[in-house]
Description:
mainly alpha, about 5% strand, Helix Hairpins, 2 domains, disordered C terminus, single chain, 10 helices
Amino acid sequence: MERFGVHMEKEKGFFERSFMFRMIRDFFLLLVIVAILELGLRYAAILYEFKNNEPSRVQEIADTLSNDIRSIMLNAGGPTAARTIYPIIDKNYNDLGFLVAVEPSQITVDSIMVSQNMEAFGLQQLWPSGHHTEAKVDISAEQYCLGCHIKAKVGDILGTVTVRSYFDRKLDVWLEEVEVAAGVLSMNILIHTLVLFLLLKIRMQPLLDLRSTVSNLARGLVDISPRTNTNSEDEFGELATDLNHFLDRITLVVRDLDNILGEVLSVGDRLNVLTKQLNSQCLEMRGVLFPVDREGENGTKKLELIAAREAGAVGSIKGTALALTNKNGSKAKNLNEEFSLLLSQLENAFTELHSGVREMAESEKKRGKNLDRYDLFLNALKEMALLEATMQRVAKNGRETLRRIVRVNDND
């Protein structure tokens, strides 16, 4: 149950941990980051250009505008034409991101009032507050200007051209670029992500087959005969080929192990038969070499005791006869010698009998020790039979495991 729970935890959220999901997610995030970096670099470029290049550009615009106003005054009929052209100039420069103003001097106002009977307003501008770059150029009176500017002299200031470039205007342009780029980049990211998904789906098929094969092996599925198709020539195809070679080697090893276990079973069967034959032969040899004769053994012990007792009795009689001879004197000496000789022979006979019976008893003891050794040998045969049975059980379990691992086909 615990392993099943761990497996369920691994399966939960599997898609979020899959290679394809991570690849698409990372690619999507990478495209978004690239877009943000691109817009950020564009903002940094605008800021850098505004601080370093915008002042010279504004000054150039102011010089150009002052020259244009001189040309208008010279060729288009003076102040009346200027009042018509000023709104157009204002609109054109406003579209370019600049605010311009033409401020007439007091000499110009007084001169136009006298010569043209109208008030000179120039190009007025309501300057907004904000960070900006400004350039001013004064328009000096020349000889052809004195026809309208009757109170001016050559070299007097007739007006001032002012040009401003606001950073907010640049920022608005950048924001418009961001809005346009957001839509374009969104479509671009979506298309690229879809293309990547299709490519991954095609290119990942060999890897998915490889993963399925490895997953089946890892989960203990018993069949190792399936092989992974190698449809690609890249690293995934090489990995699938290596896995197939590895499975082929495992199959060969398993078959060799199956043959070895078969030989072990055959040897076990022969060992079982041999053990039974040895056991039977040993039982027969025990009956022949070591017959069970407890009564004979007890009789031998009794005979040994009788021989020892009689030998002791003869010795007592001999001592008694010697005492009688010393007591009766010379008359019974000859009779005593003959009787002593007879008793000596009888004592020797009983002594030899006692020695023979003792040797026979010791031989019986040695035979008992040999019988114990024989019993130990029989126990060793029994242990060998148990080991043989254990070996057969292990071999059968091994073959059963091999049968579960490999499905041997008829074609194999």
